């Protein structure tokens, strides 16, 4: 591509709505405040529902060590916030201008909502799981993804989820984009569905880096904070985020294990769910989460 064509293309990508600098920065700020508010609301709801902490976080015999934020982490978070903003601007531009994306509320139907949402998560993880595995490949790992793994026991939600090398961020956003694009063309995904998808994806990615033991399984969608904690503890395992099926396919799935905790079921390729089974009699929710070593 010629230089005189490259520059306008880059300008269109960075600022597709041709906002002036004040509106551009105001939009960035609104997005940051929105994400901060949403993440705090989700954590508040998880606390209100009295979700137990992860077993590793309540073991009095083995306190967990957390890494403090360093300067490079703040730099990465800052750069990534602008990468996210660029993504949001392009996504909104696509939604607004694409005739393939219905926007009228009367156009809502089961295909462009429930099926669309499912396709977005499934396609995103189809690309994310092997890409994530690639980022752990020894010759590549130290240069990009290693930074995200400085926290062996993620606990700070967005601060730990978004604390990654900008290339990591671009890989993640690209997988997300492929999920949206596939859902639009396979199910005619509605704009509202895409909005809900991003809210759910943000909340679940943030919770995956929280200390709360959230897990559920719906039609092969197997979300488990324990599974991602295992990935941070043993990073040759559990590369997927939402469909652990891909780890079963790649032979990289590992069940949650920690002293005293045994899964009640053998691993299954689909719909696998790990259930805590304390080895001593539980006397309360916290007690359940701190079962003694057998
Ligand atoms: Zn992580
Ligand atoms: Zn990783």
Q: What can you see in these coordinates?
A:
Strand 1 and strand 2 form a beta hairpin. The protein has one domain. The chain is mainly alpha-helical and 294 residues long. Helix 2 packs across helix 7, helix 3 runs parallel beside helix 6 and helix 4 packs antiparallel against helix 6. A two-stranded antiparallel ribbon has the order 1-2. The chain is globular, with a radius of gyration of 20 Å. 53% of the residues lie in helices and 3% in strands. The chain binds zinc ion (2 copies). The site of one zinc ion has 6 residues, from loops.
E-strand count: 2
How large, in whole angstroms, is the Cα Rg? Answer: 20 Å
List the total number of helices: 10
Query: What ions, cofactors and ligands are bound?
Result: zinc ion
Question: Can you give me a brief rundown of this structure?
Answer:
The chain has 294 residues and is an all-alpha fold.
Topology overview:
Elements: H1 3-14, H2 21-48, H3 71-97, H4 110-135, H5 158-161, H6 166-187, H7 191-207, E1 215-218, E2 221-224, H8 225-233, H9 245-250, H10 285-289
Helix pairs in contact: 2-7, 3-6, 4-6, 4-7
Which properties best describe this structure?
globular, 294 residues, binds zinc ion, mainly alpha, two-stranded antiparallel ribbon
């Amino acid at each position: 591509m010629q230089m005189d064509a490259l520059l306008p293309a880059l300008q269109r990508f960075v600022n597709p709505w041709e906002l002036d600098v004040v509106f551009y920065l105001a939009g960035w700020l609104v997005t940051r405040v929105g994400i901060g508010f949403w993440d705090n609301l989700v954590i508040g709801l998880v606390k209100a529902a009295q979700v137990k902490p992860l077993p590793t976080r309540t073991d009095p015999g083995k306190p967990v060590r957390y890494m403090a934020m360093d300067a490079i982490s703040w730099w990465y978070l800052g750069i990534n916030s602008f990468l996210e903003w660029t993504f949001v601007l392009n996504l909104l531009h696509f939604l607004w201008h694409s005739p393939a994306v219905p926007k009228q509320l009367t156009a809502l139907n089961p295909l462009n909502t429930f099926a669309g949402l499912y396709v977005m998560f499934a396609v995103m993880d189809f690309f994310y799981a092997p890409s994530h595995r690639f980022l752990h490949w020894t010759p590549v790992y130290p240069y990009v993804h290693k930074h995200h793994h400085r926290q062996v026991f993620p606990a700070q939600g967005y601060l730990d989820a978004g604390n990654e090398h900008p290339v990591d961020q671009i890989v993640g956003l690209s997988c997300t984009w492929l999920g949206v694009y596939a859902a639009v063309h396979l199910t005619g995904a509605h704009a509202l569905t895409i909005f809900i998808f991003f809210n759910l994806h943000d909340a679940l990615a943030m919770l995956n880096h929280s200390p709360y033991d959230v897990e559920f399984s719906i039609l092969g969608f197997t979300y488990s904070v324990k599974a991602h904690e295992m990935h941070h503890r043993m990073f040759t395992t559990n590369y997927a985020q939402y469909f652990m099926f891909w780890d079963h396919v790649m032979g990289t799935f590992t069940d949650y294990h920690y002293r005293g905790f045994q899964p009640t079921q053998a691993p299954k390729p689909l719909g696998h769910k790990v259930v805590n089974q304390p080895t001593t009699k539980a006397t309360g929710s916290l007690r359940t989460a701190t079962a003694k070593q057998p």
